[in-house]
Amino acid sequence: MENSRIRRLARPLSLIVSLVFFLSSVALLPAQQTRPARRLSRGNANSSAVKDTRPRLVLLIVVDQFRYDYLTRFGDLFGSTGIGRLLRQGASWTEANFDHMPTFTAPGHAVFMTGAWPSQTGIIANEWYERDTGRKVKSVTDDSTVKLGGKPGEKGFSPRRLLCSSMGDELRIADGDRSKVIGISAKDRSAILPTGRRANAAYWFGTDNGNMVSSSYYFDREPDWVVRFNERHLADHWYGARWDRLLPEAEYLKRAGKDDVPWENLDKSSNDTNFFPHVITGGSANPSRPFYKALDYTPFSNDLLVAFAEESITNEKLGDDADTDLLTVSFSANDYVGHRFGPYSHEAMDMTLRVDRQIGTLLNFVDARIGLRNTVVIFSADHGASPVPEQAALMHLPGHRYQKADLRQLVEGGLKARYGRKDRPATDYIQTFTNKAETESGLINGNFYLNRAALKRDGIDLDECERVVGDLSMGMPGAARYFTRAQLENQLISPADPIARRVMNGFYPARSGDVIVVFEPYNILFDLPDDPTDPLSTATHGSPYSYDTHVPLIIMGRDFATGRYTQAATPADIAPTLANLLNVQVPSCSVGRVLSEALIKQSSKHRPDSR
Ligand SMILES: [Zn+2]
């Protein structure tokens, strides 16, 4: 009843501009808050009511690369069931920022359910140089596991590099593993990291064969329902599909400029255009690897995840009983599209409008099966996106694109000039390593990894060399500041300096580099963090600036008062807020705060339910 009343009320409102959205949510506030008082009929307010009122499902919805301003730029075009519903009925924070850098996918996804920054989770980037083994590793690399559902014998992934407990872990520890915890995404790290170390399962999209794949970390073989899902070859249904705009082109021209612009580069193998419509084949004659990779860059990949999430809710009976389950769904396609076309593109706008509808489909499914009033829905993003540098320049912002090879060469040359002698060429002070049979340099994520063995051999002091490398880096156009390991380890920077604090929160000694270079706003050092196979990445993210740190944070559930909250918040606040709500131990490294401004007080929460 309540839901349909709100829905009837909501439909006409969805047509009104975004500002009115927020006003309307405030207008709904009194009605929602008086709800407990009207429901005093059954009179069973004893201790068991505490259990009865716990949500049956916590649903974390992440959209990979979703800037906060997508809510304000496109909010009036959202429908009534997805993000539009979350904005109207949920508690929405307008000033939620990540407080770490680099703002990449893996570190961001590790924050939501641990309540902790990379300095504690250890997830400092998507990949980094591992000093112990002398190789580059991904955040979820685990050679002791095998991939399930992919090519036979392929190495798998796991959350073993995540150093903190998660909400899912704490839920399962508290109730003897009766809670189920499942993660779903197109990306391995985005399925694995939010669910944590004790999760039942994580599934992601395998671009080798179009299957939803997993890891032997969780089980010896994928459950039968997953095998059946994969046998349907759902991904193949989109082979040759045409992706066109959801709404008339005029709406896009008004909000995102021209469609066919020179900076929207394309991976040559995709056989695609940089304007609508996009026909999805990946340049291959049948559904095979190039097609599955191309599918990642389309909204259809999100449709696949919704279908799989629905299957997992049904088959795993998520939300069926009083032991709160946790499902995390991370939509990756928005990030791939954002990288390729940039945040001010028709494609990014269309992905945003479509993911609103896709989230609506998922929420309607959850409502029909579990009931949204038995569910806490959290909506956020792992990072935002920087404008395409060339486009930023046209906007009179100081946009510029830099390649990391130029920075490396500048520093290498400077080190040689400073330290080189006839008997000591000083050409190997920046660490190198072999990756996929190629020699790579230890400049990763804007971090210089120094070759400590070489420095020791030549009697060079590490701290001094860090400063030298930092000073040399400042000779690079666009470079703003540098931080050295010595500074960060000895707390020689002030947390009141927001950039320094974000660097410090992103620094984990055993995994981070020795010198961290920060560029000026809109000046991007292209490091290709997300898809190294796509060398023509148009736009990216990773900086400590608000276009990368400022993200949506919305929580919808009967324990949260509808409204628009202007208090400063971070995605690290989600886990301690949930721990408080669910009466379980706060995850081990949590530094976030309880979002108490929106939490309806415990005293009024344990109320009898009239339905
Ligand atoms: Zn990305």
Describe the SSE topology.
Blueprint: H1 2-13, H2 18-33, H3 35-38, H4 48-52, E1 57-63, H5 69-74, H6 83-89, E2 91-96, H7 105-112, H8 118-121, E3 127-130, E4 135-138, E5 141-148, E6 155-157, H9 167-174, E7 181-185, H10 188-192, E8 201-205, E9 212-215, H11 224-231, E10 241-243, H12 249-256, E11 278-280, H13 289-295, H14 299-315, E12 325-331, H15 333-341, H16 346-369, E13 375-380, H17 389-394, E14 400-403, H18 404-419, E15 432-435, E16 438-441, E17 443-444, E18 447-448, H19 452-457, H20 462-473, E19 479-484, H21 485-489, H22 498-505, E20 515-519, E21 523-526, H23 546-549, E22 553-556, E23 563-569, H24 574-582, H25 602-605
Parallel strand pairs: 1-12, 1-13, 2-23, 7-8, 7-12, 14-21
Antiparallel strand pairs: 2-22, 3-4, 5-6, 5-9, 8-9, 10-11, 13-22, 15-16, 17-18, 18-20, 19-20
Bound molecules: zinc ion.
The site of zinc ion has 6 residues, from helix 15.
Task: Explain what you see.
With 611 residues, the chain is of the alpha/beta class. It has 25 helices and 23 strands. 36% of the residues lie in helices and 18% in strands. Strand 7 (181-185), helix 10 (188-192) and strand 8 (201-205) form a beta-alpha-beta unit. Zinc ion binds next to helix 15.
Mean pLDDT: 90
Q: Helical stretch count?
A: 25
Q: What portion of the residues fall into strands of 2 or more residues?
A: 15-25%
- For the secondary structure, the number of strands is 23
Helix content: 25-40%
Multimeric state: single chain
Strand order of the largest sheet: 6-5-9-8-7-12-1-13-22-2-23
| Span between termini | 10 Å
Low-confidence segments, given as residue ranges, are 1-51, 605-611
Structural class: alpha/beta
- What is the rounded Rg? 24 Å
The set of bound ligands, ions and cofactors reads: zinc ion
Largest sheet: 11 strands, mixed
Q: What is the overall silhouette?
A: globular
